[in-house]
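Table S7 (text form). Paired inputs.
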Amino acid sequence: MVVTRPFEVGVVVRDLGLMERFCREAVGCRAERRSRVPESVGDPAGLGGELTVAWLRVPSGGCVKLILPRSGPVSAGAASWPAGRPGLSYPTFHVDGMDPVVTALPGAGARPLSDPVVVRVGGRRISFWADPEGNVVELVDERGDEPGPRRSN
């Protein structure tokens, strides 16, 4: 197998506008497009019906797909829909400089999940946050020798 494009991650959301704004302001994503997936496509594909999908380009080239099911995050007829099942735990964003991102996240509606907010692990700095809908987001800065915030706000 050869991967031909940058990695994409899909996140099922309750408030598409809120989460799109969070990805733009906190992570620096750029909105690319928004599409409606009709029920006639969503049901046979195992997606649980009609969806609205917003594609956001991550500065490094990957893509976040924010997925808003018409009937809510988990529809009754979507047995194969992955929302709520074990599997995807959180997206990881590799950043070049943790401090400005950590400073901006609370203003974008995120909250830190640890104290200290930034932890040094194996020569890297990592930080876990809950986005405005409570989804976990990990930040990784390979430049682990930088000073950074040590306590939550």
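Next pair, protein 2 of 2.
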Amino acid sequence: MQGKTRPPVTVGEAIQRMDAYVALGIVGQQEVAQALGLNVTDLTCLGHVLGAGEAPLTAGELAERVNLTTGAVTGVLNRLEKAGYARRRPDPGDRRRVRVVADPTAAARLIALYQPFYDRIGALFAQYEPAEVAVIADWFTRAADEARAHLETLRTGAL
């Protein structure tokens, strides 16, 4: 496949488009969370738990990934367990720690809600050259790093 020629855009225009996409993502997360009977923070944590797959996260690792305190993650895990989405299990290497695992039916429920969107995004990516997809993936990784740094700045009151 040959790359498609695209009209030039300014950084400001690109940021506006990013903002529009992020806003849609926030609304989408709220809709999915509501469909599952969760709040957005709990859904975000559940996504990380599911994403960990065969290498379950500790509560501390989950807290770090979602930028929450360990105390806040304890509340999230309590709610996810109560709702039947996840459970804690002892860490085989350190009995003082717990690992968080998803309930097998939780993955099926999330996949049912997300897969149609992922199929659409996959078809969109198929319209790009592999090198272009690599640039997009790199941009998302680096933009997430910048978002984490900005969030830390906000939380420390440096702004």
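The beta strands are 57-58, 86-91, 94-102.
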